[in-house]
Task: inverse folding
């Protein structure tokens, strides 16, 4: 996210998305067509009323009354959505808005959107003016900035005072520019002042172009989601384009050309061709091509897409399977004339986001144990194909079952399910996936707002794998992946290893509204013990160090989350009692990793992150920042060299040498399991040995 951008303002312009791109063109062209007065479209008022009624009566919290207290809190949430770092609006703007503080409830109930659009337009005006100010300020050159000041800048600006006036805001943004200039100089000691000015000017010109693309749907979405977030952070309104993206992620398929697109200054660029997709198979589409225009007929007109919004470009390029799209392409910095290619749209499978497998070997004395690994990025399912009764519909459970069967044929001794970065997905998939590893029994409890607790039960005694099992999780493992990890842990079916998980214990349902869809929290889920994972997440049996800032991950960072609680759980029969092994496994892990260069490295960075979290201010003195950088670089070089020496590959003389060595390591080890996964294999190997030893003694 760009520095200075509102943290919550609806961003439909995803930086990189299949068949999607953001386009830029000159500021002058944008300015000609820009109107600062965005207004609701005809469908917005009725859509707002539908959303308000749905959330009030069908959210988990049930029949919530709209009153002045709620209105005041929604007002604060909306201000935070518009300008979370308090850098664009002035204190006078906020004071003027105060007259609306207790009117949000009545306006929302009636579908009146004038307040929301008035505030949005004011922020939009301030943002456009500020980006233009930044561009003009940079024209004065680096020498006009004081890089030797003793001033300090706040690193986090939540809940600070609003700028008193334009002059106060100018001082704030002057500080931000000084910080950005210093950051550029710290990254490259040889960078020229002209290059810094050019780079920063381009950055803010892109920011200005983005602001000038904003439309009424953006304003409506930002406003109505200030209301939905009052209930909880996962209840939100989705535009048509967001709904389409959600369906693509869940089904792992789309109908289009099969290309990943991105910004490249003023053009839409083909970043990557998806293997097996129509564009890749065509042969004349080249990565890095710029898309100049899009047509739907061989002899028909082509629409120039320079400067179009992301969702508009999506609508042009995507289309039904079997239809043809015509792209006018140009290679950057080439004298060759533009070329037009005809691509027949097809169903594109996003295999990189599907479950995959590998086998790793771990040392077990003078022998090797074969450990199967299944990487599962999400709990996906093709809802539409399943609804239509298609026998071959795709889902996480089906893919995992297939991969387990393949691993069985490869004679594995243990299995790891890697749920790192798995943000969840389908609740039903978490249930059925659990059923692959337990004979029968409850898998998850679901408590809707207005009815009794439902217990999901696996009734199929068949299991895909009954051998040694470990589940690897991290801070980003959330929701449905936490259901699976929690069930495996509660049954004693396998070890859970890694980091505390995200802590999202709520269930959402998609509800169509007049313009888009509403994702609404209608239930909470619980582990079979009756314990909610809300806020708590799943605590691993064996915990690994983390290099992720805890302040930016996890459910607890949100203000409006639902509380964690405990309900009465069903009767279930544990498969095993793994607690008898945990202490010894943890000790073996600690001994093995105490001097392990990778884990020493991870623990060092974990401690550094904890220390850096305590800092609240940033120096705006170039020499001070250079000293801080040199101190950090010296520390990082020492930590990295200790890691290299542990691998018999170091030490490096400088960070530049270190980067070259690391690139070589990455190239040589790209097909090898990472250090975390390798240690999970060692833990699973220890577990097998302990179980075998216990069986002998019994």
Result:
């Amino acid at each position: 996210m760009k520095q200075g951008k509102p943290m919550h303002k609806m961003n439909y312009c995803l930086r990189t998305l299949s068949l999607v791109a953001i386009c830029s063109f000159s500021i002058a062209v944008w300015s000609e067509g820009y109107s600062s007065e965005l207004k609701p479209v005809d469908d917005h008022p009725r859509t707002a009323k539908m959303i308000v009624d749905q959330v009030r009566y069908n959210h988990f919290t049930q029949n919530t009354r709209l009153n002045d207290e709620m209105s005041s809190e929604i007002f604060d949430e909306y201000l935070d959505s518009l300008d979370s770092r308090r850098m664009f609006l002035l204190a006078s703007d906020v004071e003027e808005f105060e007259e609306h503080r207790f009117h949000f409830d009545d306006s929302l109930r009636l579908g009146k959107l004038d307040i929301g659009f008035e505030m949005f337009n004011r922020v939009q005006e301030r943002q456009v003016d500020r980006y233009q100010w930044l561009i003009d300020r940079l024209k004065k050159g680096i020498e006009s900035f004081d890089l030797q000041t003793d001033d300090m800048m706040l690193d986090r600006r939540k809940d600070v005072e609003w700028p008193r006036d334009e002059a106060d805001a100018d001082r704030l943004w002057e500080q931000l520019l000084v910080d950005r200039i210093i950051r550029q100089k710290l990254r490259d000691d040889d960078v020229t002042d002209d290059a810094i000015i050019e780079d920063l000017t381009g950055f803010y010109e892109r920011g200005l172009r983005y602001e000038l693309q904003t439309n009424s749907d953006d304003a409506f979405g930002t406003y109505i989601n200030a209301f939905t977030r009052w209930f909880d952070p996962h209840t939100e309104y989705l535009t048509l384009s967001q709904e389409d993206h959600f369906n693509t992620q869940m089904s792992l398929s789309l109908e289009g050309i099969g290309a990943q697109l991105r910004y490249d200054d003023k053009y839409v660029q083909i970043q990557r061709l998806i293997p097996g997709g129509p564009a890749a198979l065509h042969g004349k589409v080249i990565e890095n091509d710029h898309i100049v225009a899009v047509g739907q007929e061989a002899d028909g007109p082509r629409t120039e897409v320079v400067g179009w919004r992301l969702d508009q470009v999506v609508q042009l390029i995507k289309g039904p399977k079997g239809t043809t799209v015509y792209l006018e392409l140009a290679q950057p910095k080439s004298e060759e004339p533009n070329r037009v290619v005809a691509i027949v749209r097809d169903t594109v499978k996003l295999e990189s986001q599907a479950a995959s497998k590998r086998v790793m070997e771990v040392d077990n004395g003078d022998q090797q144990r074969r450990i199967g690994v299944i990487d599962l990025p999400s709990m996906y399912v093709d809802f539409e194909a399943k609804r239509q009764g298609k026998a071959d519909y795709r889902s996480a459970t089906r893919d995992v079952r297939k991969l387990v069967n393949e691993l069985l044929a490869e004679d594995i001794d243990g299995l790891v399910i890697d749920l790192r970065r798995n943000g969840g997905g389908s609740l039903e998939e978490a249930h059925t996936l659990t059923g692959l590893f337990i004979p029968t029994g409850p898998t998850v409890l679901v408590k809707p707002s207005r009815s009794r607790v439902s217990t999901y039960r696996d009734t199929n005694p068949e299991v895909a794998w009954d051998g040694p099992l470990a589940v690897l999780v991290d801070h980003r493992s959330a929701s449905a992946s936490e259901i699976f990890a929690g069930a495996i842990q509660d049954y004693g079916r396998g070890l859970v290893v890694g980091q505390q998980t995200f802590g999202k214990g709520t269930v959402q349902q998609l509800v169509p509204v007049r313009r888009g869809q509403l994702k609404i929290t209608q239930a909470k889920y619980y582990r079979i013990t009756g314990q909610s994972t809300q806020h708590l997440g799943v605590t691993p049996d064996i915990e690994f160090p983390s290099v992720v800032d805890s302040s930016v991950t996890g459910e607890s960072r949100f203000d409006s989350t639902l509380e964690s609680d405990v309900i009465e759980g069903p009767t279930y029969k544990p498969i095993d009692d793994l607690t008898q092994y945990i202490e010894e496994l943890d000790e073996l892990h600690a001994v093995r990793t105490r001097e392990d260069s990778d884990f020493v490295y991870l623990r060092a960075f974990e401690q550094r992150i904890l220390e850096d979290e305590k800092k609240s201010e940033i120096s705006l003195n170039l020499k001070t920042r250079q000293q801080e950088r040199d101190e950090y670089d010296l520390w990082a070089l020492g930590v990295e060299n200790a890691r290299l020496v542990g691998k018999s590959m170091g030490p490096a003389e400088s960070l530049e040498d270190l980067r070259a060595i690391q690139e070589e390591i990455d190239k040589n080890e790209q097909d090898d399991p990472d250090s975390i996964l390798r240690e999970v294999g060692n833990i699973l190997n220890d577990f097998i040995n302990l179980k075998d030893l216990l069986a002998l003694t019994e």
